[in-house]
Amino acid sequence: MRKINKRLIVSDFDGTLLNSKHTVSERVRRAIDEYVSCGGIFAVCTGRMLCSILPCVRELGLKGIVAACQGSVIADVESGAILRQNSLSCGDSTEICAFAEKHGFASNTYCGELLYTSVPADDKILTVYESVTGVKAINVSGAMSEFVTANNLACNKITFLVYPDERQRLYTLLRTHFSGRFDVTCSSSHLVEVSPNGDNKGVALKYIAERFGINISSTVAVGDNLNDLSMIEAASIGVAVGNAVDELKAAAGYVSASNDCDGVAEIIEKFGFR
Q1: What total of structural domains would you count in the chain?
Q2: From residue 257, how far is each of 164, 249, 260 by CA, in Å?
Q3: Fewest CB atoms within 10 A around its CB: which of 111, 214, 246, 258?
Q4: What pLDDT does 239 receive?
Q5: What is the mean pLDDT of each run of 10 residues along the chain (274 residues)?
Q6: Is residue 95 part of a domain?
Q7: Within a 10 A sphere around the Cβ of 21, how many other Cβ atoms?
Q8: What's residue 199's pLDDT?
């Protein structure tokens, strides 16, 4: 069995580790198993809620640490114990939702294991999101901003389910209005996300590396969308899968095959055993 120097590979989940059928291919599974059995550390960093991602990483046989909600929640895989967690204050959460409402956008608030939404229950994007993540949203009647205030909610993150032609407008509005106050990003063609300032996947990668005593020079990160940018910039080797958005490919040091062509396996085989 090969032995490798202590190395950390951090991967995004949807669109990167998962293929377009929302499964992990056998080649990717074998690559992860071999890498981990040789002493490598493999972690998942995702925008999903902790309750959504934990069963997935456990099914893969992974141990160690998982980062959820764009890095604002970090937990131990085996016990589920939260190691680090940050939230938007109730006041900030209310302000973000109210601003979006003013511009005609409904909000989704992520509070621990609960997801609240002001999106209509029959919305097609919401239905797909619930199906993929396995999380059933709790529908809120009326304005989300008022609901957040009335229930004194502090949110791990707030998202907006939008159609692709609306995404850039909302993304620009949020980044301009809240410049420097919060982390604003996009995780898919349908999702714009707001997280606590300084909480992103890059910060999560550094936390995981420090937790395992791994120098940042021995880290690899791989993703497919703008929410992965901080992570691939923080890692020694930043990789975009072949299906990634152009902005991420431009920032990456290496572009692999797509998620449907076992890109993560290629990355492990190329960089994991150095």
Answers
A1: 2
A2: 24, 12, 8
A3: 246
A4: 98
A5: 79 97 96 95 97 96 95 96 96 98 96 94 90 94 96 96 92 94 93 93 97 96 97 98 97 98 97 86
A6: no
A7: 9
A8: 86
pLDDT at 3: 63
Domain boundary among 161, 194, 227: 194
Among 175, 194, 213, the domain-final residue is: 194
Q: Would you state the structure tokens that stand for residue 247, as one six-digit string?
A: 């902005």
How far apart CA 53 and CA 120 sit, in angstroms, is: 25
Please check whether residues 36 and 110 belong to one and the same domain.
no
Q: What is the DSSP letter of 96?
A: H
Amino acid 156: pLDDT: 96
The structure tokens listed for 64 are: 């160690």
Concatenating the DSSP letter of every residue in 15-47 gives: IIIS-TTSS--HHHHHHHHHHHHTT-EEEEE-S
What is residue 233's predicted lDDT score, i.e. its pLDDT?
Answer: 97
One domain for residues 135 and 205? no
| 166 and 122 in a common domain | yes
Q: Tell me, yes or no, whether 159 and 207 share the same domain.
A: no
pTM of this prediction exceeds 0.90: yes
- d(C-alpha 248, C-alpha 221), whole Å: 12
Number of Cβ within a 10 Å radius of residue 239? 28
Cα separation of 22 and 14, whole Å?
Answer: 7
Its domain, for residue 123, covers 100-194
Residues 199 and 183: beta-carbon distance below 8 Å: yes
The backbone torsions φ and ψ at residue 251, rounded to the nearest 5 degrees and listed phi first, read -90, -20
Q: What is the pLDDT of residue 59?
A: 95
Q: Which CATH number covers residue 204? A: 3.40.50.1000
Report residue 169 as tokens.
């407008």
